[in-house]
Design a protein that fits this description.
Layout: H1 2-7, H2 12-20, H3 25-29, H4 32-46, H5 58-74, H6 78-98, H7 105-114, E1 119-121, H8 122-125, H9 131-134, E2 137-140, H10 141-147, E3 161-162, E4 165-168, H11 170-188, H12 194-201, H13 205-215, H14 232-242, H15 249-261, H16 266-272, H17 281-291, H18 306-311, H19 327-340
Antiparallel strand pairs: 1-2, 2-4, 3-4
The structure holds iron/sulfur cluster.
Length: 343
């Protein structure tokens, strides 16, 4: 159990294990060793350091990871919190996929249950069907909708669904768990007694200094804000990225095609994405260049139509702008302004 607590410190069972071992928040704060390790974990997570193996001092690692979350929470910086949760959830998936001894479906289903998901073995849902061989794990549709990535490929209509269970292969199941784990971290950061916890943390000098430093960190400012002639859909996407939210793949694709059309260059668009919690400069630049037709298949992509935007859940007006494509919105807005000027 100590290895599970170290690998997945934000599971309920990990918290219960530490408590049973007498490792509470108060005792962790009294240990210089755990406090130092917690601050290191904060820094590593924000820099997106790679996986840490759980070989030495698994209990210290587990306690320090939980303390690290409360240090981040104390900074009251939503950008850093999202970045931390994103980094930790990606490490969760890496460990889930690569740790020997936890590769059985049953073991992963148990982790899913700890995260509050309703999960079953597909062989018990579709008895005798070959579907269970390809899609061995079933998840209740409500949980699937809550945690599946917001992407057309993940729409329920494209998935085998039997009696309210969505059937998944292991890879996709692990991806769903990644979002559930991230949601769990964010939920822990908003627990009711968080004010009390942060009060305790502030009495420990190294943590106090770390929190003060984190409070002053902000994402790189976006050089261009949404402007009046930009349509509501694109303004909403820009605003969401500006707030450090994890915009879905479709939203990133749409805003990139739109801004290229508006004359932004690749570097300006890469800068826009800098405040995304999972920002990776190399990958982002390649993707923007790909959409611009500068690399890969050299095909320049068009701005999605309003119909498509609406089907992706990205049209806040429900097709109410009177245009067929977001690029037409600016022209229509300037014609309207022109017409309203006194002659
Ligand atoms: S109608 Fe078109 S331009 Fe207007 S918000 Fe929807 S997608 Fe954007």
């Amino acid at each position: 159990m100590q290895e599970i607590a170290c690998l997945f410190p934000y599971l309920d069972k990990s918290g219960e294990y530490l408590f049973a071992r007498g490792i509470t928040l108060e005792s962790a704060l009294n240990s210089d060793h755990i406090v130092k390790r917690a601050i290191d974990i904060v820094e590593e997570s924000l820099k997106r350091m790679k996986n840490r193996p759980c070989v030495d001092e698994p209990e210290v690692e587990a306690a320090a990871s939980r303390l690290a979350l409360y240090i981040i929470t104390g900074a009251s910086n939503i950008y850093l919190l999202r970045r931390f949760a994103d980094s930790q959830s990606k490490m969760f998936t890496y460990r889930l996929r690569n740790t020997p001894g936890i590769q059985s479906y049953e073991c992963k289903a148990e982790i899913a249950s700890d995260l509050g998901l309703s999960v079953a073995m597909a062989r018990n849902v579709v008895k005798g069907s070959l579907l269970a061989a390809t899609y061995p794990i079933a998840i209740r549709w409500r949980d699937y909708i809550r945690y599946a990535p917001q992407d057309p490929d993940w729409a329920m209509i494209n998935r085998p669904v039997v009696s309210g269970w969505v059937l998944l292969d292991v890879n996709d199941f692990e991806r769903v768990l990644e979002d559930a784990y991230e949601a769990k971290i964010l939920k822990m950061a908003s627990r009711e007694d968080v004010g009390y916890i942060v009060g305790l943390l502030s009495k420990v000098e190294p943590i106090y200094r770390e929190i003060a430093k984190l409070r002053s960190l902000r994402p790189v400012t976006i050089r261009a804000e949404g402007r009046g002639e930009d349509p509501p859909c694109m303004r909403a996407i820009i605003e969401s990225i500006r707030k450090g939210e994890n915009a879905p793949h479709t939203a990133r694709f749409a805003i990139t095609t739109y801004l290229l059309r508006r004359g932004w260059d690749v570097e300006q668009i890469v800068d826009l994405f800098r405040s995304s919690p999972d920002f990776n400069e190399k990958i982002t630049r390649y993707q923007v260049q790909h959409i611009a037709g500068q690399v890969g298949g050299r095909k320049e992509y068009s701005v999605p139509s309003c119909e498509t935007m609406n089907s992706w859940g990205l049209c806040p007006t429900n097709l109410g702008c009177g245009v067929k494509n977001p690029v037409q919105y600016g022209r229509r807005a300037s014609r309207a302004t022109e017409a309203s000027r006194p002659q």
